[in-house]
Amino acid sequence: MAASDPGEKELGYEQARDALSEIVAKLEAGNLTLEESIDLWERGEAMAGICKARLEGARARLDAAMAKQAGDEDEVQG
User: Is 12:57 a contact under the CB 8 Å cutoff?
Assistant: First the structure.
């Protein structure tokens, strides 16, 4: 499966993490051709990118929620 397969960008964090874990296991097991290894590596890079993007999005949502809560508390105290 190539890194540009349709629908991969819609994967959730857990799905991408699990796919990445499987890819790592296959690469560590060996018994692959060079071409298969490169394809898996590329897909792994794509999965890692998806995981990173999902985590950054979650962090942004948490930061926004915390800023809103702090703003609401300031209004109540002020």
Answer: no
